[in-house]
């Protein structure tokens, strides 16, 4: 499987990268970066460092958007730390990002191997929207897209109703979700139930090796923050779950296939992801996306642990 | 229990009236009417006729708002028939509505018996919003308010995200839900699971008496429409469930107590009811309301059948 990852590392992005980098069946064809969990300069630097740490230094990293299409960016230093990785220092490397932007790299790769590349989008969807603007046939040129983003029946995580990645660039999300990709939206509806809890964290802590060591240190920081939300020592594995669903759609045990919109106005609801979940939805003009509603959490967590070993 | 009913009969309103009229412990102190399921002239006429049919001709009926506070009204003749009662003719009576408006009657009754009157709101919330404007102390002057309206995690019934009563007057709903009433919002989240299905409808059909006979004929029409939504012969008992919850809060087996807002702008979400369902909601300035999430449906349906006997 040839995978392009668009991401904003970010602690859970780092774990998703570790997961995919460890999969022998995965060829990482490129990594795009975007503002989100930290500024794009930081997420780009992190992506380069992490790929070296995960022994994939040959993967091209392309810096992407520094800000959303329309609004001002809102970064999540309170969740991921000022350096995007919970203050944990990953060794610096000599490698530089490529000169193309993330959107240009994605378009070039997709054109060069039509129908072959899967896209995993783990941050705000700005780069994908830009790629779509550069190449409107992108939905036909890529294989599948898995997006971590949105909250449909679940509460939001940056407003009571909106999820961070979608809320960070609602216009981009609205464009991407309506573009006709073969797209799976891994929303808070499932990621907030894919929790790494104490027993799993202890198993991780018992693992030897640099990869597991860094994962544990990243997660220590992340869990500290999540404890204030969840009321117990645990954290949501948003991006790793999306990576796992890309690798194996069978992890999704229940889903609906529905058109999804993003509210762009709204006093309270700007940035909210909206799915028509009525028993008989109206046939709309918008292509539906797959919205997982149940996933095999324990199988996912076992696989994560195996990948970090 | 002294109850003021604000309603737009309406087939399920008619059943809620039948239910409360049959309860020996309930004193109906007044009925206000509003546009919604039909025009206010029609719902007023229906309320007068139904109270006679249910042997409560002494209850004062006050005609209320003919249109929402801001937008144009949208009537539901396709669900309730042109006469609001599925084309079933209920005998006309000599009685006339009182000269006060519904809002004025409610305010006068509340002032005359502070803390004693419960309000059951079964239509758009225009009359309650007007009453609140006439008497800002209304939340302190009435006992409890039960509102049938809204859709929080459930899909809407007039748009994919909005429920008819709230969507019919979003400004009124926003005012009422934020006014500080001791308020229970019986939303589609529970009413769409309180279905009258074939076995119950057959039990109803087997009952003797005028009250049951009319109920069956109303429901025959209503079920015909609902079959197109539900894919089987059944219907949601929205208003009767709200009446039952007013009479006995114990029918609610699970609920959350949360601030609820109504989106007033929004391209897709105007009229949507929004509750902050995050694990740790922000402390807001808005008073919370009770939002039932589970009800004892079979007990409710048994009680309905008993009341129609």
Structure summarized in a few sentences:
The structure is a homodimer of 309-residue chains. The first copy, chain A, is of the alpha/beta class and 309 residues long. Chain A contains 13 helices and 12 strands.
Write the layout of secondary structure elements.
The structure is a homodimer of 309-residue chains.
Chain A: E1 2-7, H1 11-21, E2 27-33, H2 40-53, E3 61-63, H3 77-80, H4 102-112, E4 117-121, H5 126-134, H6 138-141, E5 145-148, H7 164-168, H8 170-177, E6 183-186, H9 188-191, E7 195-197, H10 198-206, H11 210-230, E8 234-236, H12 238-247, E9 252-258, E10 260-262, E11 273-275, E12 289-295, H13 297-308
Parallel strand pairs in A: 1-2, 1-4, 2-3, 4-5, 5-6
Antiparallel strand pairs in A: 7-8, 9-12, 10-11
Helix pairs in contact in A: 1-2, 1-11, 1-12, 4-5, 5-8
């Amino acid at each position: 499987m040839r995978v392009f990852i668009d991401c904003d590392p970010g602690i859970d992005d780092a774990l998703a990268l570790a997961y995919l980098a460890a999969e022998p069946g995965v060829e990482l064809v490129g990594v795009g970066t975007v503002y989100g969990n930290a500024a794009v300069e930081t997420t780009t630097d992190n992506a380069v460092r992490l790929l070296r740490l995960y022994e994939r230094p040959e993967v091209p990293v392309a810096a992407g958007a520094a800000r959303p299409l329309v609004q001002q960016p809102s970064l999540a230093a309170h969740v991921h730390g000022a350096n995007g990785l919970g203050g944990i220092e990953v060794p610096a490397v000599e490698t530089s990002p490529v000169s193309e932007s993330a959107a240009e790299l994605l378009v070039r790769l997709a054109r060069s191997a039509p129908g072959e590349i899967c896209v995993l989008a783990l941050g705000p969807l700005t780069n994908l929207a830009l790629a779509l603007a550069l190449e409107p046939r992108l939905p036909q040129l890529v294989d599948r897209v898995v997006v971590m983003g949105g909250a449909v029946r679940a509460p939001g995580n940056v407003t009571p109703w909106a999820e961070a990645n979608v809320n960070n660039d609602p216009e981009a999300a609205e464009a991407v979700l309506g573009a006709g990709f073969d797209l799976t939206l891994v929303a808070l509806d499932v990621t907030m139930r894919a929790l790494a809890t104490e027993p799993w964290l202890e198993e991780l802590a018992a693992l030897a090796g640099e990869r597991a060591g860094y994962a544990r240190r990243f997660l220590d920081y992340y869990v500290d923050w999540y404890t204030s939300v969840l009321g117990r020592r645990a954290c949501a594995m948003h991006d790793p779950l999306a990576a796992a669903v890309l690798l194996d759609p069978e992890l999704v045990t229940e889903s609906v296939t529905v058109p999804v919109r993003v509210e762009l106005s709204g006093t309270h609801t700007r940035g909210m992801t909206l799915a028509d979940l009525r028993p008989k939805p109206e046939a709309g003009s918008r292509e539906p996306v797959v919205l997982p509603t149940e996933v095999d959490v324990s199988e996912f967590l076992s696989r994560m642990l195996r990948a970090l070993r």
